[in-house]
Design brief:
The protein has 14 helices and 17 strands. With 469 residues, it is of the alpha/beta class.
């Protein structure tokens, strides 16, 4: 509940920013609900001071740690986070004089990382596609950092103050705002704190309330095979203690494409700028609402704003690079894109294994390309995939040269990166998008087993833009 008071001059003012946490409004989504019987109501958690639902648990976990003597003045807060919990903790730290170190997975948007650093936090980035007990995982790295003297790890996945914050604030707010007339509560499930705290509270007040868990494809929760996905902040590859799995009555599994499309639709139709996990929750709420009567009260919790995702799900180029642009299925073939490229350069610009790093950098600079395949010495005019020894990348070469000036006189085979992925000229463009999503900056195009050219992200996007024009 928001806490304000009258000061000595009779002005209504909050004592500090932390007092403004919670008591977020509920709004009807009449446009997104136009094709389902009931009107879906949305709890706007992006209107918390730090822009997300995680402000609630950040404050609650630090309050509890201070009360228990686990965090003392001048201490350090260490937490693995996808971004939003870090912001909530950073605001508390700024007010109370703590140092912050946040460990984030590498799929977190650069916008979020910049935001954490703006609050004065230190950010460590770790790989997403590793097991939780891998020493490189963001769980493991945060454990090691938390062993430093004076450090405290709130550990949102294990901290009972996480779901308790929602039992004491979010749940009662919804009960009051709906006058007890709530039939279903829909939310994305990450740590499980929101589902457990809000769902548990509502079921105590009204046992018939249905809790719907919105889960990304690739998450363990809804029974999927664990694999990487692009939506941030929800889904998991293990069952955290903060999550009471029995509280969820219905699971809705949602794809990245559905999540991002719905988030963008919400922004454009309702005027509410939301993040990707909000899209996941909205898809789940919409599906569930389609099965309910007109007088049902369905509340969906929207955890954060879309401001942290402007360079991702709100960027058409990013969507195209990740195979999520809607019109790629009939956008032509790989060979058609290759044929339409500017022919100012050879179709297959390449280097030989005996050429020096200095020569490679010169070719990259003069031609304006960022990577080149390296072919074996006796490669034919139309080489096969087996004739490709590897790739040199401009960024890697320059970084190596800055560390070791002597590398400029070495041959490129000494600094080779793996070969670019290959794709047949007759393949649809979705295949190129899948290859580029895997982290490669370009692909080798083959025809009857022979390498005939290279396609980059820029080539593909130029082709798509040309079709739209």
């Amino acid at each position: 509940m928001i806490t304000t008071h009258r000061d000595a001059r009779g002005r209504e003012v909050a004592p500090d920013l932390l007092a403004l946490t919670g008591d977020t409004p509920l709004v009807a989504l009449d446009r997104l609900s136009a094709d389902v019987p009931p009107t879906i109501l949305a709890k706007l958690e992006m209107l918390n001071p730090g822009g997300s639902v995680k402000d609630r648990i950040g404050l609650a976990m630090i309050d509890a740690a201070e009360a228990a003597g686990e965090l003392a003045p001048g201490g350090t807060i260490v937490e693995p986070t996808s971004g939003n919990t870090g912001v909530g903790l950073a605001i508390v730290a700024a007010r109370r004089g703590y140092r912050c170190v946040f460990v984030v997975p590498d799929k977190v948007s650069g916008d979020k990382i910049a935001l954490l650093r703006a609050y004065g936090a230190e950010v460590v980035v770790c790989p997403t596609a590793v097991e939780p007990d891998d020493p490189r995982s963001y769980y493991s790295v945060s454990d090691r950092l938390a062993e430093q003297p004076g450090a405290f790890k709130p550990n949102q996945y294990f901290n009972p103050s996480n779901p308790r914050a929602h039992t004491h604030s979010t749940g009662p707010e919804l009960w009051r705002q709906t006058a007890g007339q709530i039939d279903a509560f829909v939310c994305g499930v990450g740590t499980g704190g929101t589902a457990t705290g809000v769902g548990g509270y509502l079921k105590q007040r009204k046992p018939g309330v249905v809790v719907v868990g919105a889960d990304p494809e690739g998450s363990l929760y809804s029974g999927d095979t664990v694999r990487p996905y692009l939506v941030e902040g929800i889904g998991e590859d293990f069952w955290p203690p903060t999550f009471d799995r029995d509280v969820v009555d219905v699971w809705e599994r949602v794809s990245d494409a559905e999540s991002f499309a719905m988030a963008r639709r919400c922004t454009r139709e309702e005027g509410i700028l939301v993040g990707g996990s909000c899209g996941t929750a909205l898809v789940a709420a919409h599906r569930y609402a389609a099965t309910q009567p007109e007088d049902a009260t369905i509340v969906v919790l929207l955890p954060d704003s879309g401001r942290g995702y402007l360079s991702k799900l709100y960027d058409d180029t990013w969507l195209a690079e990740h195979g999520l642009i809607e019109h790629t299925a009939d956008a032509g073939t790989v060979g058609e894109v290759l044929a339409g490229k500017d022919r100012a350069l050879p179709a297959l610009l390449h280097l030989g294994p005996g050429e020096t790093v200095a020569r490679a950098i010169e070719v990259l600079r003069s031609t304006g390309v960022s990577q080149l395949p390296v072919l074996r010495e006796a490669a034919p005019e139309r080489p096969g995939v087996d004739d490709v020894l590897g790739t040199v990348h401009e960024h890697d070469l320059l970084a190596t040269a800055l560390r070791d000036a002597g590398v400029m006189h070495r041959t490129v085979v000494e600094v080779l990166q793996p070969p670019l992925p290959s794709i047949d000229a007759g393949a649809a463009l979705d295949g190129v998008l899948a290859a580029l999503t895997g982290g490669s900056s370009a692909v080798l195009v083959t025809d009857a087993g022979q390498v005939v050219g290279v396609l980059t992200r820029a080539d593909l996007l130029a082709h798509l833009a040309g079709r739209e024009g």
